[in-house]
Amino acid sequence: xxxxxxxxxxxFLPQRQEGFYSLRVKVIGGGLSGAQLQALSDIAETHGRDxxxxxxxxxxxIPFLRRDDLEAVVRRLAAAGxxxxxxxxxxxxxxxxxxxDVCPNGFVSPQTLAAALDRELNGExxxxxxxxxxxxxxxxxxxxxxxxxxLRGGLIPLWIAPDRCTHCGRCQKACPxxxxxxxxADLSYDPERCAHCGRCFNFCPExxxxxxxxxxxxxxxxxxxxxxxxxxxxxSLAGEREIIQAVNRSLDFFxxxxxxxxxxxxxxxxxxxxxxERFLLG
Length: 282
Fold this sequence. Notes:
Low-confidence stretches: none
Number of helices: 9
Structural class: alpha+beta
Number of strands: 11
Largest sheet: 5 strands, mixed
Order of helices and strands: HEEHEEHEHEEHEEHEEHHH
Mean pLDDT: 94
């Protein structure tokens, strides 16, 4: 392996300018402390040109680092509780919105799940890069379907207060898939059509709806030269362990079936969606 490839795998990207490297920092879900931000600023000022770039996937890059300074940079990152991001054919740093930790629209906590996935997934030795994105509601800020695996939070609704319901019809109007029908005397809900978007819950003035938070999981998304929308192959998931298991099985499927340099979505398309579904459920 060439030195350039080895450095890239360690998080240092060769720049257009000869002799300079950009460091990509591992930032799970875009979350950094004030002290870590200060440490990155100090590294950029001391070893670079006092520039920091925020990437499209919530990471941080520090450009214009010289080869002789890279070991010192890694030590300073470690002192701040940080490390370079994984690059090359590996599991990339996960993106995640704030979700229910902060956002009033969020039903689940992508930050908590992203941290758990980062601790427990085995993403070493993959045929190509592999991206995971998590978003906390159907506003879909992180575009779950554009990732190799995307996880999108939702709410499985339950109509709990028929005696309090005024049959105003706001939940029916809010439902984007026509899963709710309201008459003057009754309300019907079709769980098979439900998108789990939670709009019935949010729009009901009498708070007649409650719900169970859940995750929708999408497989095989691609965005770039070859665009492919990820597909749902599993029912809604609620437990952290079952999500981690499903992601690890997806990585195993990728290792067993992918050609070198082939993205997960292209592997699925070539091998067949039914094969992945059988592997996940097997």
